[in-house]
Design brief:
The protein is an alpha/beta fold. Helix content is 46%, strand content 15%. It has a seven-stranded mixed beta sheet, with helices on both faces. β7, α9 and β8 form a beta-alpha-beta unit. α3 runs antiparallel to α6 and α16 packs across α17. The chain is globular. The mean pLDDT is 92.
Length: 497
């Protein structure tokens, strides 16, 4: 198997070196091919997600299809300008010279996608990697069976397999794949597997982006409109039934606020699902029995009080929204990320205790605060750290392409979305082009013998840039003119002689 994986990577490297994605037109063509895949396979994508996770047509269109197509549209409008050299300011020592940043593709990159959003979390990084000019080895998740099958059977009809091979299989196949030398690795998944990926990357000093997760905290202030907050929390947990890295994980509020919030959440559940989630077309399913048992184990071992019982049916992989109140810090639900339709509320005395608790834990991928009091929001923002911060809503930052998406600490490293995805897969090469001229100036500034006078001249020139006038500018320009006159004089003298 290792030899097979080596052949896959080597073949992609041959194609990269042959310049298959060197030009704008080549990259644009492959981006259009992905867009064609999304259009022509739209019904198949919806069916695959229905089979894997019982997602609704609307959710798949919004979170898997439309978002990817919008990303491609933005790239087609801006990629040509992004590919151009970025000129940088320089000191007067280098006036007349060319200095700029050239964005180069890394080469052959590996993208490992998760099962919860198997198209979006695969295609968005793929779009950026292609736009940057890389060949890509694609590893979809084997957990979302029908989605993996669709990618395996159809993507090669749109993208050349030698440039963009799809590797399918479980942990053993991924382990063999990670033994190969890549130029960049982009991984989305759990922190545990992220550590494995990073160790493998370290063997070859391969740069990585790790999109991980963690427990996303929420503070609900007493000043909030509780029905508004409840609606947004329940709506968030209904998206893939909480099987999302930025889903609400636990809520902190006062005991009084907890009572008001739970009452409002019951109203939301009744309005959204008519108190029958299992038969609601808007409520999905847990991905498989193993994950069902994991979440149910948290629920069974919890010491919290069941305030909203959504019901369970393992034969149908159904678990309704279940809300636990009066949860303690050492509860079973507070140890690991829930990643499912279970929501817990941990009472605190107020904002400061909530902030202190968040800061005592690993930094989350996202942190949420609900309040009508702007002072509360500012205090929360200034005193917590997370990959993203949202007030009075959740997940909506994903709809703003220019906002970076990524974690910090154990919730991840690196970020992407919009232009930042292109930047993630691009090496920023420093370029300077100089001329074989003005040796008279160089002798007065930088060549031995070194003197105090040369040091003063050079420092004055180096710390004066072309866009920040200073007295040193006049010194530098004078030196340049003197050098030019000397060069001209020598040339004339030689000519006359």
């Amino acid at each position: 198997m290792e030899e097979q994986m080596r052949e896959v990577v080597d073949r992609a490297r041959v194609e990269f070196k042959a310049g298959r994605l060197r030009t704008y037109d080549q990259r644009r063509y492959y981006l259009l091919q992905i867009d064609r895949f999304l259009k022509e396979q739209e019904a198949a994508i919806i069916a695959a997600q229905r089979a894997d996770l019982r997602k609704t047509h609307m959710e798949v269109m919004l979170t898997e299809v439309a978002t990817c197509r919008a990303e491609i549209s933005a790239y087609l409008k801006k990629l040509k300008s992004w590919m151009k050299p970025e000129h940088v300011s320089k000191s007067i020592v280098f006036l007349g010279e060319s200095t700029y940043i050239q964005r180069q593709p890394y080469g052959v990159v590996l993208i490992i996608a998760p099962w919860n959003y198997p198209f979006y979390l695969l295609l968005v990084p793929l779009i950026g990697a292609i736009a940057a000019g890389n060949c890509v080895v694609i590893k979809p998740s084997e957990v979302s069976v029908e989605s993996e099958k669709l990618v395996r059977e159809q993507l090669h009809n749109y993208l050349p397999e030698e440039c963009f091979p799809v590797v399918c299989g479980g942990p053993r196949k991924t382990t063999e794949l990670l033994k190969q030398r890549f130029d960049y690795i982009f991984f989305t998944g759990s922190t545990f597997v992220g550590q494995i990926v990073m160790k493998a990357a370290a063997e070859h000093l391969t740069p990585v982006t790790l999109e991980l997760s963690g427990k996303c905290p929420t503070f609900v202030d007493a000043s909030s409109d509780m029905q508004c907050v409840a609606n947004r929390i329940v709506a968030n947990k209904s998206l893939n039934i909480g099987q999302a890295c930025i889903s609400y994980d636990y809520i902190m509020c006062t005991k009084e606020t907890q009572e008001r919030l739970v009452k409002a959440m019951k109203t939301s559940v009744e309005e959204f699902f008519e108190n029958d989630m299992q038969n609601s077309a808007s409520w999905g399913r847990v991905i498989n029995a193993r994950h069902f048992d994991r979440i149910y184990g948290m629920l069974e071992n919890s010491k919290g009080q069941v305030a909203i019982d959504g019901g369970v049916d393992k034969s149908d992989l159904f678990m309704g929204l279940t809300v636990l109140t009066d949860v303690k810090e050492n509860d079973s639900t507070m140890k690991d990320e829930i990643f499912g339709p279970l929501l817990v509320i941990m009472p605190v005395s107020g904002l400061q205790e909530a902030i202190d608790f968040i800061n005592s834990k690993e930094k989350p991928l996202a942190a949420y605060v609900h309040a009508r009091d702007n002072a509360v929001i500012r205090e929360f923002e200034e005193n917590t750290s997370s990959g993203a911060l949202l007030s009075n809503d959740s997940a909506m930052n994903m709809s703003v392409p220019d906002l970076p998406f990524g974690g910090v600490g154990r919730s991840g490293m690196g970020a992407y979305h919009g232009k930042l995805t292109f930047e993630t897969f691009s090496h920023r090469r420093a370029v300077m082009h100089r001329k074989q001229a003005l040796e008279g100036v160089n002798k007065k500034l930088r060549y031995p013998p070194y003197t105090a006078q040369k040091t003063r001249r050079l420092m004055a020139a180096l710390f004066t840039t072309e866009d920040t006038p200073h007295y040193g500018l006049y010194i530098g320009v004078g030196l340049v003119l003197v050098g030019a006159l000397v060069a001209i004089g020598v040339t004339l003298g030689v000519t006359l002689y």
